[in-house]
Design goal:
The complex is a heterodimer of chains A (113) and B (116). By secondary structure, chain A is mainly beta. Chain A has no helices and 11 strands. Helix content of chain A is 0%, strand content 58%. Classes of the chains: A mainly beta (113), B mainly beta (116).
């Protein structure tokens, strides 16, 4: 069966510090991968998605970046965090074909102080 | 472009009340429709889905019927419980030319609070 792992679960970082959030998927190959952000009390904002190794599409210009160094690994990064980067970050995967929707990770609560 | 509109929350109900959360969509073609649920502090979980017109998705006492004529996919439950308190997201996706899946398009979410 397929599983998705996301870590860390919570993170408190000072303004200006770097960020690295990791997401891995097991039990499938060539998944579509996604990073979403959810600000407190608000909806989902798609940040990045990837349909293959090294292929990243950005939905929102900002100081975040994403990379996909391996087929089932998706990393969200920042060189210098801003207060406005605080939020709940969710990774998700999707089969590249079929009609299955997304499977989400358990999320990372990031607080920038 | 394609879009999903959900009723604004929050929705507050007493235990055992009837629940309806409205969802309408705008899309070309024949999208698949989904409801996701997010419990406090957790990621989203797929609650139910429907892939073609008149399909009814159901799970954990929740139901939603894909109505093409009204472009709707309203979520219903006959008797809610305190444990149903969560945020509910309606979503759609399309199959791209060539058979690959498109990105899901989400509504803004509806927060449900059920009081004992």
């Amino acid at each position: 069966s397929q599983t998705i792992h996301q870590w860390p679960a919570t993170l408190v970082q000072p303004v200006g510090s770097p960020l690295s959030l990791e997401c891995t998927v097991e039990g499938t190959s060539n998944p579509n991968l996604y990073w979403y952000r959810q600000a407190a009390g608000r909806g989902l904002q798609l940040l990045f998605y990837s349909v293959g190794i090294g292929q990243i599409s950005s939905e929102v210009p900002q100081n975040l970046s994403a990379s996909r160094p391996q087929d089932r690994q998706f990393i969200l990064s920042s060189k210098k965090l801003l207060l406005s980067d605080s939020g709940f970050y969710l990774c998700a995967w999707q089969r590249d074909r079929g009609n299955y929707g997304y499977t989400f990770g358990s999320g990372t609560r990031l607080t920038v102080v | 472009g394609d879009s999903v509109t959900q009723m604004e929350g929050p929705v507050t109900l007493s235990e055992e009340a009837f629940l309806t959360i409205n969802c309408t969509y705008t899309a070309t073609g024949y999208p698949s429709l989904f409801w996701y649920v997010q419990y406090p502090g957790e990621g989203l979980q797929l609650l139910l889905k429907a892939t073609k017109a008149d399909d009814k998705g159901s799970n954990k006492g929740f139901e939603a019927t894909y109505r093409k004529e009204t472009t709707s996919f309203h979520l219903e439950k006959g008797s809610v419980q305190v444990s149903d308190s969560a945020v509910y997201f309606c979503a759609l996706n399309q199959i791209n030319y060539g058979g690959s899946q498109g990105n899901l398009i989400f509504g803004k979410g509806t927060k449900l609070s059920v009081k004992p």
